[in-house]
Structure to design on (440 residues):
């Protein structure tokens, strides 16, 4: 008889888990922990409630910016964006004209230059302040004007003192043009590629005569043995100045972006074209966007056209009326400032971006009732989530402008101090929405 096939028996080599180990795995110890990743940059400034405290912040940062502007803009030949750039260029042109016509009046020339540089922009903003007071609001106007007055008054004082005593702060290197023919009259214009080179005094290679300028071919014909050294020296010195001016532009863009973001947070602005930009955004519920950057760029170009190109042409039109002078380092570095300051402000305070907020709270009804009483305009969804231990959690989901977020958080915290709030920037959005004028 055939042998009957017996089924194989599979035995496990591992022992079943002990009950104590299962209990250890399944029972977590739950702790409540406060998490704060700072939903808002510079969040401490959102908590300033008193108007006097806001005024002090505006004045203090106006003082800070005035020092930075004197050191990194006025003395370097940089131009800021907006209407201020036009007055900077106009003041620099008048300064060069006065220096050439009355070179002995150093203190008077410095006074007139600084008065035009700072006071004209202040006068314009006082006029725009009337418009802002009527169209935007009293507190916004007062904060903006306080900042502008602080910046312009302290800037005038520091600038006049430094210019009268010929004091300069070359933190990142000198940005005085290598062309001493222009530097003698205070022209702020650096070339990317010098095409004219100085002659020599008594044939000594280290003593240049900038009153006699030569093209590269003319220089080799006049000084065959020294021409190569002169060209290399001038271009190296010019390259260092070019690098320094771009560093000033980037650092000053960073400083102004931080200060402007803080001004927006406390409810003010930096003035100038900002007045109309804020008015437009509030009236039409959208920002000027790229148009605002373009307008700033146009004013900046006009400033450079007057203050650098125009001033150089006034000194000697036969030599300096060229594209090399027009598209100078001053022009390009100022464009870099306009672009970078706009990008950095958008990082520090993306006021025109939308945010999705998720609030985990058990105080759903009182929060919804309060927001309804405040005419909160955005859609709110109420959902229930389940956690691993089968407990339910209520949550609210809504969207709002980034600059509405601090007020919304403040309202929610009134009803639930320990609720969990998460927020993220929305990259794309399409549809019609309303903007809250204010949630108190």
């Amino acid at each position: 008889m055939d042998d009957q096939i017996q089924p194989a028996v599979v035995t496990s080599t591992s022992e079943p888990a002990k009950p104590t180990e299962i209990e250890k795995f399944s029972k977590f110890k739950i702790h409540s922990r406060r998490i704060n990743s700072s939903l808002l940059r510079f969040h401490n400034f959102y908590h300033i409630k008193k108007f006097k405290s806001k005024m002090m912040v505006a004045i203090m940062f106006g003082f800070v910016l005035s020092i930075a502007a004197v050191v990194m803009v006025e003395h370097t030949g940089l131009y800021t964006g907006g209407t201020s750039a036009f007055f900077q260029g106009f003041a620099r042109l008048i300064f060069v004209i006065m220096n050439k016509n009355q070179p002995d009046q150093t203190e008077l020339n410095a006074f007139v230059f600084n008065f035009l540089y700072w006071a004209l922009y202040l006068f314009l903003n006082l006029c725009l302040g009337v418009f802002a007071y009527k169209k935007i609001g009293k507190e916004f106007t007062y904060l903006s004007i306080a900042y502008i007055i602080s910046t312009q008054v302290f800037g005038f004082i520091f600038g006049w003192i430094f210019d009268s005593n010929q004091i300069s702060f070359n933190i990142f290197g000198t940005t005085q043009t290598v062309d001493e023919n222009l530097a003698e009259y205070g022209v702020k214009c650096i070339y990317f590629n010098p095409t004219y080179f100085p002659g020599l005094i008594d044939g000594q290679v280290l003593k240049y005569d900038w009153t006699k300028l030569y093209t590269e071919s003319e220089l080799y014909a006049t000084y065959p043995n020294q021409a190569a050294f002169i060209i290399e020296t001038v271009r190296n010195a010019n390259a260092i100045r070019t690098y320094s001016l771009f560093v000033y532009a980037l650092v000053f863009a960073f400083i102004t972006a931080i200060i402007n973001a803080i001004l927006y947070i406390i409810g003010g602005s930096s003035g100038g074209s900002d007045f109309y930009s804020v008015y437009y955004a509030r009236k039409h519920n959208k920002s000027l966007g790229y148009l605002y950057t373009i307008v700033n760029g146009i004013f900046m170009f006009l400033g450079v056209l007057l203050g650098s190109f125009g001033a150089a042409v006034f000194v000697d039109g036969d030599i300096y009326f060229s594209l090399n002078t027009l598209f100078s380092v001053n022009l390009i570095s100022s464009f870099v400032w306009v672009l970078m300051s706009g990008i950095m402000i958008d990082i520090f305070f993306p006021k025109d971006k939308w945010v999705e907020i998720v609030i985990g709270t058990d105080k759903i009804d009182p929060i919804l009732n309060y927001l309804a009483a405040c005419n909160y305009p955005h859609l709110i969804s109420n959902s229930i989530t389940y956690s691993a231990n089968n407990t339910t959690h209520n949550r609210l989901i809504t969207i709002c402008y980034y600059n509405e977020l601090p007020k919304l958080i403040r309202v929610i915290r009134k009803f639930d101090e320990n609720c969990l709030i998460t927020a993220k920037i929305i990259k794309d959005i399409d549809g019609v929405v309303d903007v809250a004028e204010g949630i108190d």
